[in-house]
Design goal:
mainly alpha; 79% helix
Length: 157
């Protein structure tokens, strides 16, 4: 039953992150905590680390201007590439999952900036970098927490 709850929380949280909802990352973290309860493998320091990352992302999302925090512009590229990069890196190791997620978000942002709609971000510029950080950080943290929960559940099953 906990596995089903974990999967529902992770998928709905990732969906909310893809929709630029600031609370999506909290849902993903809740899924990570439920996975930890099921797996009984993780250390408390791992949960504290991801908890602090979640709090930082939520606080930053409240500090951003409403026009940026609510924008979904290019989020499919950024979050989708972060998800692809994290899952590709997960094949190698947990550390590579994080590296793959970051690399994916950066490449997704660059890919979006090359589209006609993304030209407004003006790659390379500080405006592009700020937008990439505002949208890429929550996406990377969310997909890495989901990948961590997936690892814990796979090793428990």
């Amino acid at each position: 039953m906990l596995i089903l709850i974990t999967v529902i929380l992770l998928l709905s949280g990732l969906g909310l992150v893809f929709a630029s909802n600031r609370y999506g990352i909290i849902v993903v973290y809740t899924g990570l905590c439920v996975a930890a309860a099921k797996a009984s493998l993780p250390t408390v320091s791992t949960l504290i680390f991801w908890g602090i990352a979640t709090v930082i992302v939520v606080i930053l999302s409240f500090m951003l201007p409403k026009s940026i925090s609510g924008s979904r512009r290019g989020l499919g590229y950024i979050a989708g590439a972060a998800l692809a990069g994290a899952m590709t890196g997960l094949v190698i190791s947990h550390a590579w999952m994080i590296i793959g997620g970051v690399a994916g978000a950066i490449l997704g942002g660059i890919a979006y900036s090359k589209t006609p709609a993304g030209k407004a971000l003006g790659f390379p510029s500080s405006k592009f970098l700020n937008y990439l950080c505002a949208k890429g950080l929550p996406a990377v943290i969310a997909v890495c927490m989901a990948g961590t929960a997936l690892l814990w559940l796979i090793f428990k099953i």
